[in-house]
Amino acid sequence: MARPRALLVVYLVVVVTLLAGSLHKYGSASDKISAATIAESRLPELLSQTGLFALRCVMLAINLYATMHKLTTSEDKVVLHLPASALPPSVAIHIKGPMWLTFFTVEAWCLQGAYLLGATVCSASTLYGLELPFGEWVPTALWMAFEVSFAVAVLVSFIVKYVLIPGVLGKGQSVDNFFEIDDLLMHNCNVLFMALELLFNDLPITLGHFPLAALWGLTYVVFSWVWLAWKGVCWYDFLDPTLPNACVVHTVLVSVLGVFFAIGAGIGELALTISSPHVRVGIVLAGVATVCKTGILTGVPQPHLKKG
């Protein structure tokens, strides 16, 4: 049975320790957010608190629809591992039900759904004077879930568009599954929803909280090792723990996640210097367009035909 390289295990322990130490040092225990802050609209001239509540209801409904649709589908999949991998060249597997939760995209989408549910409840509580059904610590947890969800959503969409789809096409396989309704929503609406939240909610993205996003991603890495030991398959080539350059690849992934987290924080700061709300909206939506891949204008790409 193939196992993660010992160097990668040591590397992960060191990185997690550093991230935990950084979070303890730079993440203040006084960082707290109220339900009223979560319900507040940053741009009331474009979207009122009531409008933000309605928007969240729509986003939450779409999130729940895609989640339930995904969990009720099944698919026969052949996973092709890289030649440099110690894993079998190909693994045939039938995916159904809760097995979909083993994909990083689905896990990230569920985290986003938890945030949207909580944020919607906070909006309803503030607007209609309802008593919150949870403790005072929950709004702060929702704030941090938003920070993580924003960076992870951009990472997911970026990797799908620029790494996964080209990689699958290069192996001569179809990418039709990326353009089915649930995958389209999870790979595109994920970043759109968090971009809209970034525009209209009044929650900051604090650089001192970046370790939370990195630890979320690394938790999935460890989970993927457990899944590999159980099923003998690695869903993503770049997370294959048996590759010789695994440490380098994981460093790049964490670094890219950090860049997207910083972009979110930067946009929040930049918004304070741009007086026109329409310009803010245009900049953010233009950024969303650079990482989305819907196939609406270009059609579904087809695999490369090997000559000879």
What are the SSEs and their pairings?
Elements: H1 6-26, H2 35-39, H3 49-71, E1 74-80, E2 90-96, H4 104-128, H5 137-170, H6 181-200, H7 210-231, H8 246-271, H9 277-291
Antiparallel strand pairs: 1-2
Helix pairs in contact: 1-7, 3-4, 3-6, 4-5, 4-6, 5-6, 5-7, 5-8, 6-9, 7-8
Which properties best describe this structure?
single chain; 308 residues; mainly alpha; 62% helix; globular
Write up this protein.
- With 308 residues, the chain is mostly helical.
- The protein has one domain.
- Helix content is 62%, strand content 5%.
- Strands 1-2 form a two-stranded antiparallel ribbon.
- Please state the average pLDDT score: 91
Largest β-sheet summary: 2 strands, antiparallel
* Gyration radius over CA: 20 Å
Instruction: Count up the domains.
Output: 1
> Secondary-structure element order, as H and E?
HHHEEHHHHHH
